[in-house]
């Protein structure tokens, strides 16, 4: 058990004094009720929120952002001996990748042991988007590219991007940015194929509000508490 103001301070979101002020102002809740100055809570089980947004206070939870290279598998283990994205992070804890990113694609993958956050990011109802930059060939027209956001028909049902924009064009190739609210198997690739555009490369550049242009393929880093809180907050906002 640990005092609530110390938990908030350890999360990195406020100093001890500021945490006490936030509690006094009624902005902090524990398991749905207003927090009290000096109360002790179990960081492993307590749900602590500031202004309705969850604060990561469990010290046993880890959150990594990895840049998966092409050829690396987005699983915790692989029976064929291929390298997995979990091998890119430095931890002895049992962790797993959140969502999928196919072997032919590269980009950002969240690796964690946080089951609650995993559910928030992977379940479409919470609306956390994943953003991709896709280089396609086949000279797709601007209207064909826009149709990705109005919806295209796939063999497993209709699919629609949350947002699409063309970033650049050179000859028959176009560079587009696609934001998705769900993550079916190779969905973005299949959507591009449906409009007659062949994917040359596909890179995930953002998970909700989380971006990092400094990571190179094969690198990873630990998320700071503020970034974890932003991910929780994005899910709460989307679910309202």
Counting DSSP E segments of at least 2 residues, the number of strands comes to 17
List low-confidence stretches: none
User: Mind telling me the CATH class of the largest domain?
Assistant: Alpha Beta
Q: Largest sheet at a glance?
A: 9 strands, mixed
Describe the structure.
This protein is α+β, with helices and mostly antiparallel strands. It has 3 domains: 2-54, RNA-binding S4 domain (Structural Genomics Hypothetical 15.5 Kd Protein In mrcA-pckA Intergenic Region, Chain A, Roll); 63-125 and 209-239, Alpha-Beta Plaits (2-Layer Sandwich), CATH 3.30.70; 129-207, Alpha-Beta Plaits. The protein is built from 6 helices and 17 strands. The chain has helices spanning 4-10, 16-24, 115-122, 142-150, 187-194, 225-239; strands at residues 2-3, 28-30, 33-34, 40-41, 48-50, 53-54, 63-68, 96-97, 106-112, 130-137, 152-154, 157-159, 163-170, 173-180, 198-207, 210-211, 220-222. The strands form 4 sheets. Strands 7, 8, 9, 10, 13, 14, 15, 16 and 17 form a 9-stranded mixed sheet that branches. A 4-stranded antiparallel sheet has the order 3-2-5-6. A hairpin with a 2-residue loop joins β15 and β16 (210-211). It is elongated and about 65 Å long. The chain starts with a strand and ends with a helix. The model has no long low-confidence stretch (mean pLDDT 92).
């Amino acid at each position: 058990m640990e005092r609530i103001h110390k938990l908030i301070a350890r999360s990195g979101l406020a100093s001890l004094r500021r945490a006490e002020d936030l509690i006094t102002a009624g902005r902090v809740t524990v398991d749905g009720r207003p927090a009290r100055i000096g109360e002790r809570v179990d960081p492993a089980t307590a749900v602590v929120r500031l202004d309705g947004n969850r604060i990561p206070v469990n010290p046993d939870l880890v959150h990594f952002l990895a840049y998966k290279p092409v050829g690396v598998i987005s699983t915790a283990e692989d029976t064929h001996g291929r390298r997995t994205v979990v091998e890119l992070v430095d931890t002895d804890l049992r962790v797993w990748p959140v969502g999928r990113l196919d072997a032919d694609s590269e980009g950002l993958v969240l690796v964690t042991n946080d089951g609650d956050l995993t559910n928030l990011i992977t379940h479409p109802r919470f609306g956390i988007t994943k953003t991709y930059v896709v280089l396609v060939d086949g000279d797709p027209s601007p209207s064909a590219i826009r149709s990705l956001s109005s919806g295209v028909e796939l063999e497993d049902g209709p699919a629609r991007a949350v947002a699409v924009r063309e970033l650049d064009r050179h000859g028959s190739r176009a560079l587009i940015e696609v934001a998705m609210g769900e993550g079916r198997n190779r969905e973005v690739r299949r959507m591009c194929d449906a409009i007659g555009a062949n994917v040359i490369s596909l890179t995930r550049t953002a998970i909700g509000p989380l971006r990092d242009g400094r990571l190179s393929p094969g690198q990873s880093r630990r998320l700071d508490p503020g970034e974890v809180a932003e991910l929780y907050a994005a899910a709460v906002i989307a679910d309202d």
